[in-house]
Specification:
The chain is an alpha+beta fold and 640 residues long. The protein contains 15 helices and 18 strands. The strands form five sheets. A seven-stranded mixed beta sheet has the order 12-13-11-15-16-18-17, sandwiched between helices. A five-stranded antiparallel beta sheet has the order 4-1-9-8-6. The protein has a two-stranded antiparallel ribbon with strand order 2-3. Helix 8 packs parallel to helix 13 and helix 9 runs parallel beside helix 10.
Length: 640
């Protein structure tokens, strides 16, 4: 049966299953192993080369001494070496024949010196046979194996019966030789030949092996120590990742408030922690927004169902009543009455559906044209006339808006001050902007209708218009919520613009009534769809509960802000801020001193109220009036 081959991806799959900490430790081990092995090999080669070079220098330096004493070789015993007992010397003639001479006892012996080791062990280099040069090159050192003669007493003994010294001597005798062949010349008879001189490499090999063993031991110690320290460092480094893992597990369990411990962002784990915390914050915010949106959607569906059910139930009821009474006398008159009720209910339902459709189109960015020129002054004049027409007895004051105190006199302007924006009785300025004229008119009309429905007919109303420059981008302003804090932020941007003499121009529309007002905790809800302060949803004062929601959507589509704040003295003030599309730049000539205009935020206004007793003139009067107005502020609820 053919062997089953595993797919190539299976190896990588098994590798991917290995923990990252284990991979790092294995990598550290591999790097240390390769590094120590490379260093050991390099040291071995360097020491071996150095010792061989030194050995070659010794051979060359001793060659002349050996040749000058060659005539005495015949009279020396094999253990003698002319004062160089470790050298092997052999003299050959011009035909590469080994020369011989008469010894002291009259025998012919070869002219060579052979060093003899302990225990009668003799080691000689293997040279070309007599009469042959072989592959030997003159004056070039070469290595050659050893020919060892061991006495019978040692050769016949087993290895385990030899002493350590005997084994070391035998191993040294078996070491190769380093030999050099040089030419010799006898000037007396013009004879010449070849002289072989060699040294055993046993000491060098022993030195190299000793150094190698030392390097291997040190390398093993370094690897063990490096892997141990590397494991500890990896475990310590991965502790934040363990914290991240535990935090992720808690978040997966539903605790979105968990955050990864902060670390220095210049580290990889610290940068990852910062990114994860930012991501978790966005996820938590998105989740909370989704929950809020879901809750609003459920409430919206419930409110819409309720609002639509009322006129539908009325239509159905009057239709059944007509059917029941059409056979009785006077049915025609009763039919007209039933049809009238049906017409009113259908009209209410039509208005509700049209408002819902308008909101849906605004949410999708449709149904609005932001390229039309809009005369805000003319539009506000029409709104004032409409309010006069529906409430003839109402006192309507018209004025302009400016910020805080008069910059030239350092005093409050007479009028109503709220949040730093001051109402001054004067003709409204001419202001035009680019937007959807019909939609902006719808915003103002909805606010006028809100004033008409929820305030007494004889309560005064202040309608004001002004142009201010603020150091805030319209895209940022359009995303702010409809709260008092957003209005304060806009006023601070206006104050900053007064110092820098640059920013974006905005048209500010304010309609302040003196009705029952809305509690502070309810003012941010009046722009919600179908919101009503009446829990019965009776809608006795008319309206669908969508007017202010439509106004907010239209203003945000124009990158503006609409909010409701408390009127000093009681009531509700609607503030609409719309960008005019123009930008004010700082003047080129900055050599003249610029006198900073005074501005009033809510905090500074309260401070002025507290210190009003110590002021004089119009400023003191305005502070005392503001204090009295705050003391009499009403917190009654009214419907949106």
């Amino acid at each position: 049966m053919a062997a089953r081959r595993e797919p190539a991806g299976s190896v990588r799959g098994h590798f991917d299953k290995v923990p990252l900490s284990t991979k790092l430790v294995v990598i550290i081990f591999a790097l240390l192993l390769v590094g120590c092995g490379t260093i050991t090999f390099a040291i071995r080669q360097m020491v071996s080369g150095y010792l061989i070079d030194r050995l070659d220098n010794q051979l060359t330096s001793q060659a002349q001494l050996a040749f000058s004493s060659a005539d005495k070789l015949a009279q020396q015993a094999p253990t003698s070496s002319l004062g160089v007992s470790n050298f092997f010397v052999q003299v050959r003639d011009s035909n590469n024949e080994i020369l011989t001479s008469l010894s002291s006892d009259g025998k012919r012996v070869q002219m060579e010196a052979i060093p003899q080791l302990k225990y009668g062990i003799i080691s000689t280099p293997m040279l070309p046979s007599s009469g042959s040069m072989g592959n030997v090159t003159l004056n070039t050192p070469f290595s050659t194996p050893a020919y060892v003669e061991i006495p019978d007493s040692l050769r016949t003994s087993s290895t385990d019966k030899l002493t350590n010294e005997q084994r070391e001597v035998i191993a040294s005798a078996q070491s190769p030789w380093r030999v050099v062949a040089i030419r010799w010349v006898n000037s007396s008879d013009n004879s010449y030949g070849v002289l072989y001189i060699g040294l055993s490499m046993g000491d060098q090999i022993s030195t190299v092996e000793t150094i190698t063993e030392y390097c291997l031991i040190m390398s093993a110690a370094i690897i063990v120590l490096g892997v141990s320290i590397g494991s500890l460092v990896v475990q310590h480094t991965f502790k934040p990742l363990k914290h991240i893992e535990k935090t992720a597990a808690k978040i997966a369990a539903g605790d979105l408030s968990q955050r990864v411990p902060k670390l220095p962002e210049n580290t990889e784990v610290g940068s990852l922690s910062a990114s994860l915390n930012a991501m978790l914050s966005r996820i938590e915010s998105s989740f909370r927004e989704q929950e809020a949106t879901t809750a609003k959607m459920k409430r919206f569906v419930s409110d819409a169902s309720h609002e639509l059910r009322t006129p539908l139930a009325a239509i159905h009821g009057y239709a059944e009543l007509y059917k029941m009474q059409r056979e009785y006398p006077g049915a025609l008159e009763r039919a007209d009455e039933a049809i009238g009720h049906i017409e009113k209910s259908s009209t209410r339902m039509t208005v509700l559906v049209e408002d819902l459709l308008s909101l849906a189109r605004l949410d999708e960015g449709r149904g609005i044209d932001l390229t039309q020129p809009v005369n805000v002054t003319l539009l506000m004049g029409d709104a004032i006339e409409d309010l006069h027409a529906i409430d003839p007895q109402r006192d309507i004051q018209v004025g302009r808006i400016q910020l805080g105190a008069d910059s030239t006199q350092g005093q409050f302007q007479s009028g109503i001050n709220d949040g730093g924006l001051t109402f001054v009785k004067a003709p409204m300025p001419e202001i035009t902007l680019t937007g959807d004229s019909s939609r902006i008119r719808q915003v103002v009309t909805n606010i006028v209708g809100n004033v008409h429905r929820y305030t007494p007919n004889d309560s005064p109303v202040q309608v004001s218009l002004g142009r201010v420059t603020a150091a805030i981008d319209p895209d940022v302003l359009g995303k702010l919520p409809s709260t008092d804090q957003s209005l304060d932020r806009f006023i601070e941007a206006v104050q900053i613009s007064q110092g820098t003499k640059s920013g974006t121009d905005y048209a500010v529309i304010r309609m302040a009534d003196h009705g029952p007002g809305v509690p502070a905790d309810k003012r941010s809800q009046i722009f919600e769809r179908f919101y009503t302060a009446d829990p019965s949803r009776a809608r006795q004062k008319g309206g669908t509960g969508l007017g202010l929601a439509i106004a907010q959507s239209v203003v945000k589509a124009h990158r503006g802000l609409i909010c409701a704040s408390e009127t000093p003295g009681g009531g509700l003030t609607f503030t609409i801020i719309l960008p005019t599309g123009s930008v004010s730049e700082a003047p080129v000539d900055q050599t003249q001193p610029v006198q900073k205009k005074g501005g009033w935020s809510r905090a500074s206004r309260q401070s002025a109220v507290k210190t009003g007793g110590g002021q004089s003139g119009e400023a003191g009067e305005a502070a005392r009036a503001a204090k009295a107005a705050d003391a009499g502020a009403s917190s009654n609820a009214l419907g949106a």
